[in-house]
Amino acid sequence: MSGQVSDKPGAAAGKQVGVGLIGFGTIGRGVVKVLRENAAVIEKRLGFPLRMVRIADLDTKTDRGIPLDGIQFDADAKGLIADPRVDIVIELIGGYDVPRRLILESIAAGKHVTTANKALLALHGKEIFAAAAKAGLDVGFEASVCGGIPLLRALREGLAANQIESVFGILNGTTNFVLTQMEATGEPFESVLKRAQDLGYAEADPTFDVEGIDAAHKLALLATMAFGAELTFKEIPTQGIRGLLPIDFEQAAEFGYRIKLLGVARSHKLGGQSGGQADGREQLEVHVRPTMIPASSLLAKVDGAMNAVVVRGNAVGPTLYYGAGAGEMPTASAVVSDLMEIAREIARGGRGPVSPMSFLAEHIAPMPFVAEEELVGRAYLRMLAKDQPGVLGRITTALGAEGVGIASVVQRGQAGAEGGAVPVIVLTHPTRRAGLARAIARLAKLGDLVGDVRVLEIEEGV
Asked: 356 with 401, same domain?
């Protein structure tokens, strides 16, 4: 261990822990700001200084607008990793292959690591955490999920005594901003997305956000920490927000719901052979998709680019975590909190007191998933039906033939321009997804519809 802090408790005065930053973009700039502006309070909490000593970035010409006196700044990431002044390496370059290599090289060099790279951890986390554990080093990643919200630390430590029953989250601020604006203005998706890009909420290529991939990255980490489930984001059924129309928000409001892109991880206890009692085995329900949730629920009140997660434990009940999920300073706050936690362990001469993924590595294993078709719930169906006699009757008959109970049917407006078709909205009773899928296939064969049926699930238990 290369730390300059004595391993004797209380003997850190006059010493410091050195930090090296790889990737000097928006979040990196925020980290430097937090370390400079809050240096005094950080030292009061640690008992010793936490100092940025070196930065590496391919772009060494752009003025980041903050003083770098006392900090070595160049493009030499390998030199930073090898520098004996650096005790903790921060990786903030993003992507997969290059950061994976740099993190593993840092661990091999005896350096602790912190990162905000949820995509990398959702795919290669097992390899990285195993390498760190073997080397007796820490990997901090609080900033990788929901930016400035201390959610991962809560799962790892504050809720450690609980069996986690469910995690429901608005995990992506861009999509929440778009959905909030579509509901408030009645504007179509593309117009609102363009405004989100102009305001800096969405990237020039918004695919990871609007297709739900970013939320799936985060949910993969949360599912591992909550349930000890070994999985990657590629195993999570994921649907984005493209294709939603203003009518969907209007109808949701009439029915008492709001639409949110929701990440869900929920444990299903399996019944025993007699009496239906749980036998200790679990299956995991996990998915990301736009969902209707009751307008009275706490998550429904989360607007704009904010994030929020509800975690339910068997002892504590529901707990809510809310805040800014992205941005320079909120994310930098989480990165520096990781630095401080690791710096304390360097000062003690040890490593983190708890497993970074909450469960010990030997207890993280693949977990059986609940088959999507076996899940039961209510659903919202929006279809464009030809304006002809008997169409509504044939629609309801097709649904009923597959056991789909109908709670409400609404026909909106008069015949439109698309082949004389009108929107038809159906709200179902709780039904098994397999039956709903068969009913939708039956509807498609009727010849009464224009285009596909849009399905939004309804989640009452948020």
From this structure: no
